[in-house]
Structure formats: C-alpha cells, structure tokens
Amino acid sequence: MQPIIAPSILSADFANLQRDVEMINASNADWFHVDIMDGVFVPNISFGFPVVKAIKKYANKPLDIHLMIVEPDKYIQTFCDVGANILTVHFEACNHLHRTVQHIKSLGMQSGVAINPHSAIDLLKDIIADIDLVCVMSVNPGFGGQKFIENTYSKIISLTELIKSKNSKAKIEIDGGVDLKNALPLLKAGANVLVAGNTVFLSPNPSQTIDQLKSIQL
Ligand code: DX5
Ligand code: ZN
Prior knowledge:
Layout: E1 4-7, H1 17-26, E2 32-37, H2 49-58, E3 63-68, H3 76-81, E4 86-90, H4 97-106, E5 110-115, E6 133-137, H5 152-165, E7 171-175, H6 183-189, E8 193-196, H7 198-201, H8 206-214
Parallel strand pairs: 1-8, 2-3, 3-4, 4-5, 5-6, 6-7, 7-8
This protein binds D-xylitol-5-phosphate and zinc ion.
The site of zinc ion (ZN) has 6 residues, from strand 2.
C-alpha cells in the first residue's frame, strides 16, 4: 500500500500561500498537514483561524490539523467550522482525552492523538481503539526543520503491536524530520502517514519530492 503524504504548511511561503496550496492540490500529496501552535504548549506561535480558513478556501484535499495548544477542548467546534477533516490533539495537553476524542468524532471529524518523544506508547492503550490516527512526534514539537529522533522506530514497532492487539484502525503518522532517506525505514517499521515540511518545501521541486515520497515501495 502506498503511504499517505501530508506536506506541512508550516514550511510553505506564507506570502504565497495560495500558490503553495495549489501546488499541493496539483501534486500527489494526500492531505494538508496544518500545525497550530499557541506559544504555551510549544515555544512557538504559528497561525490561527483566519489562515486555516484561507487554506480551506483553496485546498481540495483533507485538512489534517495538528493542535499544539493547551486546552484544545475550547476550540474543537471552531476547528470543525473552519474545515478540519482530521483533528489531532496532544496526549500531553488533555486531562480528559477520552471526552475530547468523543467530542471530535461527534462533530464528524476524524480523531487523532499526538504523542511527544518522551511519552511512552503504552499510555495510549486505553484510547487506541477509539481513535483514527496516532501522530508520533519524531521531533520535539514547535518548529519545522529539526533533526529526526531515532528512538521513533521502536515507538512505531510498539504502536503497531498495540494497534493490532486492540483491534484498532488507527493510522500511524510520523511528524518531524521526515526526509527521503528515513521515509522507507519508517514505512517498513509500520508508519502509514508521512508529514514532511522542509523536505518538501525547501526542495528545488516540491511536487517531484512529493512524488518521490509517495512512490516509495515497501
Ligand atoms: C513540528 C510540526 C511539524 C513540522 C514538520 O512541531 O508538528 O508538522 O511542520 O516539519 P519538518 O518536516 O520540517 O520537520
Ligand atoms: Zn505537525
């Protein structure tokens, strides 16, 4: 099966956002990965609702919204209203994750849970059957262009086992430092979705780089 490729808009040229959205529309990418950072949960601020709305206006593929914010519950309805198809909250930001996940699903969105590099996969064992996606952070969230953390491979292997043992349909998404070299081993370890920011947008031919990621054969 071919991987799902989700270019991260964080690495796009915000002064030419429509151009970059249309490049992804015309490419072999599957989803738009949209990073929301609040300057509290992570030490960076990205963008908010007006920008998501602007992306949605032109995007012809699903929006995969990754919330790196505290108190995500406050904004679930609004992210639905501005066009989220997949809404991912951080395990570390939710005191009542089960409730949060049910809320997201009740609005018709797919529900994702992101997990920081220091959080063990085991922590997901009582939620894995309820969710559509696990976003395994392969960098500490907050910035594009960081170095991939090698421990991610063993987390993917544990997560694959957990998903199987709980009969879960969750997809495994890898976010941070994904490039043309580690993409194949990540997919071999069990990843289904590759987020790529700098690898796509800093390449001389972003659309061709998306093709290269998409056509990786296992
Ligand atoms: C990091 C974000 C990522 C980021 C990935 O906190 O969640 O989605 O945009 O960018 P690259 O692929 O450049 O590491
Ligand atoms: Zn992300």
